[in-house]
Amino acid sequence: MRFLRGFRPAMCWIFLLGAMGLGHCARAAQLMGFEAAAPMTVDAIELDAEELQWIRAHPQVIVASKQYPLYQFKDEHGQWSGLNIDVLQRISAMTGLNFVHEETFSTEHLLRRLESGAADMTTTLALNDERKLFLDFSHAFGGSAWVLVGHAGAPLLHSLEQLSEKKLVLPARHAMEATIQREHPTIELRSVKTYAEARALVESGEADATIENETGAQLYPTGQLKIGHTVEGSWEADHLAVRKGQPELLSILNKALEAFPAAELRAIRLKWLDGIAPSPALSFWQRVTRWGCWGVFVVSLFGLLSLLWNRRLAMLIKQRLDVEKHLSDQLAFQHALIDAMPDPMFVRDLEGRLIMCNKSYEEALSIRLDQVQGRQLIEVDVLPRETAEQLHAEFIAQLDTRKPRFTQRQLKFNNGVRDIYQWTVPFYGADGQVRGLLGGWTDIAQRRSEGGCQCSR
To answer: What's the rounded Cα separation, in Å, for the pair 1 and 247?
Structure first.
């Protein structure tokens, strides 16, 4: 339980970061759900008698459609697709209108079809004074701005004033054409059939700029082009344009747009346009806030990792301290055990240097461990010289043979000759390698005298 309490702050941070990621996952799941969902049941809107009669009299509504990627275009199967197509399909389900698309290849061609009565409506025309003379426009259901598009090697375009005395190329009968002629007469206008031609002229340097819908401008690789700022006050609302003389059709479309669920319309726009339009430039404080948020995130992540690392280090340190305490306890036990032995005992390394000994060894040779520890017998004056050299040679030879030795012998000490029973055995490390000698001796005469004292007669 103490372990879990220690990790509680880390668990809180993990939960917080998981919740942040879950928000993004939920948003992505919402979009995926919208795309994958089966067609929903749509309630029909209430229409009056004249509108119902108009639908019966017009089994098909001809839509003049020019390909404008993401808004309306033909897919790989030749079927019309896009944002506006989804909107018309929803309106068709709500009203019973049957929309039939007839492809046009330029804005001018599309307008001629509507003027001649060959088409009933369209979905991609911007509203201007010229078009209001022969078209009625429905309620708006979205929109975007016009942007200036110039050559990549030229300065970034901020406004139409920069194009004074320069060439601006537009598709014929463009929605901005009349406004530019009226408000910016010094701009040299040139008309072409399509936006593709306009972009090509700007890339080649034959024209200085063109004007495109903000969404459309982001769809194509910039190449030699550079997208500038939006044209001030030029918001282009999305309308359904209906040829004049069809008030019933306009009324039906407006009723359908009014009844269109706002959440569904927002989801359709998000499905097609999300990530296309560039994000607006951030102000200084917005950038500071964003970097501040990232800074907090990075610091929090670093703090979380530091917390986990510190916890791990604390556990490792505790484990090491426990092991050291256990080893200390074992060493203390070994010292106590060897000191309790009545006979002298010693431990020497591979060079014959003394590692440790017991109290009996110190008493027998009248020395202290700290005086002789780490030294060979021949380096200290605890035994006669010839005895020390003999025993040291025997130790080294035994380390080479690695055989235990048990012998009864007479040995000359500083205080005289004694009869002893001597034993020495090699000892090994955990890796199986010999590490030194463990040995000792028993004073036979002393044991006999001690044994005689204990006998009762």
So the answer is: 76
E strand map for 202-330: 209-213, 225-237, 241-243
Per-residue pLDDT tens digits for 292-327: 899 999 999 999 999 999 999 999 999 999 999 988
In tens, the pLDDT along 85-110 reads: 999 999 999 999 999 999 999 999 99
Query: What is the DSSP code (8-state) at residue 249?
Result: H
Q: How far apart are CA 114 and CA 107, in angstroms?
A: 11
| pLDDT value of position 41 | 58
- Confidence (pLDDT) at 32: 44
- Global pTM value: 0.50
Q: Which CATH superfamily is domain 144-235 in?
A: Periplasmic binding protein-like II (3.40.190.10)
Pairing of β 241-243 and β 121-122: antiparallel
Contact 65, 104 (CB under 8 A): yes
Neighbours of 251 (CB within 10 A): 18
CA 293 to chain centre: 15
Element (H, E) at 222: none
Q: Residue ranges of the domains in the chain?
A: 1-38, 43-141+238-281, 144-235, 284-340, 342-454
* Multiple choice CATH, 342-454, 1.10.3720.10, 3.40.50.2000, 3.30.450.20, 3.40.50.300: 3.30.450.20
